Amino acid sequence: MVAKAGVHWLGYLATMSSEAGMGEHSGLRGTVLFTAFEPSGDAHAAPVVKALRGLAPDLFVAAWGGPKLHEAGATVIERSADDGAMGLSALSRMGAVRRHAAAIDRWRSQHRVTVHVPVDSPAANFPIARRFKRSGVRVCHLVAPQLWAWGAWRLNKLRRCTDCVLCLLPFEEKWFRDRQISAKFIGHPVINRVIDRAVVGERAVQLPPGAPKILLLPGSRSSEVWRNTPLLIRTLDELRARHRGLNAVLVAANDELLQLVRRRMGSTVSQSLSLIVGDLDSAIAWCDLALCVSGTVSLDLTRQAKPMVGVYQASMLSCLGARMFLKTPNRLLPNILAGERIVPEFVPYSGGAAPVFEAAQHLLSDSSRMRLATDGLRQVLESFRGHDPAIEAAQAILSLVRGENPLAVKPA
């Protein structure tokens, strides 16, 4: 999470000079500041910024973030949402966040912010949001912190630094409101999106044939890829020994992570494993079963109701800590949403490949189990119907810009 300048200060000040005259046509004046400290936060915030720009083109939108926020139309003051270098220590990451926070403090001392939108990353964003709230700025959290899973003791901190929490999971709205925190469910940008089935289908048929077709998803962060790739490959090897016609595809989120996958695999690449970058939806449509690292990608799989086995390789100490502090019986998002274990999960996990293989083989060996998993995932999708996350988030933020109650805004 090394700081990178996203906009030169002189160029930014020139932009701000034009801001002074904004709002003459729309009647809406103000500045919204997004702060995102992870690639996932950059991705979550970008569609919201695009929607804001469409609904209120005269509103000035600034950000500490990444390339997707910039592409969506935000003025990125500093790059703060790049994937941290593999092996970067927690102390170094904390130092980077503190440097960003100090820069944000300097910036806000010179520029009036109407609404601050902290995006996920509660450890980084809570102190920043608290300072904005104390100075009278309205605060709208985008992506509810998962206090229902851990850290309920932080509820008082959240109450003191928010005006509204925008929730991506349906049960979160009631959970926070029951604890006297203003919250609004807006849907999830991964699930509540349109997939062009025709285009996806055309690309899927270009992937290698086989039976079964196995998809490997090693994670979106370098640390996840480093830890989990060996486990996924060993599990695949076990499946290949049982299924002679098996073919597999591994999807990396970007070219850098693909190179990291290659380093972790060494000389184990075989003809029955294809390595590709991107085109996740087509790979999901192609596969029979996915082996995925726990995270948002499990919702991409849920979006197409595709059976999966979730993993998250961790140290034994981390696994012990999870047992002590995590309050939910399930850790994989589809299982949390279903309220039961509809797909196998090993999250977190410090063991070998054999149990993961057995869970995958248990599904592959019985079509009725695969159908049950598919049906369970389709039921999960029902609770998201009728929402447009980007538009609903933008409307809630605009209501705060106007000084109105964001909870009064009806779904799009």
Question: Descriptors for this entry?
Answer:
single chain, 412 residues, alpha/beta, Rossmann fold, 2 domains, 8-stranded mixed β-sheet, 6-stranded parallel β-sheet
Protein model, in words:
- There is one protein chain.
- The protein is of the alpha/beta class and 412 residues long.
- The protein folds into two domains: 4-191 and 386-408, Rossmann fold (3-Layer(aba) Sandwich), CATH 3.40.50.2000; 197-382, Glycogen Phosphorylase B (Rossmann fold), CATH 3.40.50.
- The chain has 17 helices and 14 strands.
- The longest helix has 21 residues, at 222-242.
> Nearest-angstrom radius of gyration?
22 Å
What does the overall shape look like? globular
Q: Report the helical percentage.
A: 40-55%
> How many helices?
17
Estimate what percentage of residues fall within beta strands.
15-25%
